[in-house]
Design goal:
It is flat, with a radius of gyration of 13 Å. It has two helices and five strands, in the order αβββαββ. By secondary structure, it is α+β, with helices and mostly antiparallel strands.
Length: 89
Amino acid sequence: MPEIAALRPNLVPGLAVWSASEGELLAGRADATAYEGAVPAVVLDWKSDVAPTTQDRAQYRGQLQEYMTAIGAGRGAVVYMSVGEIAWV
């Protein structure tokens, strides 16, 4: 996956994500985050689903958007490893 390979020099695995907003708490772990200097730029979430449903995809996208908001990243991608697909958010 060339788009992911291009991020590898700045990619850090397993970032703990915590936030509190409007009475909601978030605790999770981003599978990988690419940084530009000290700033998180791209959040990646690896998925191994063979045939993700529309509902699965929406849930994954929502989870990724929460991570992006929590750490201030401008881009994110759900990476479906088993089918070789990248869904940019």
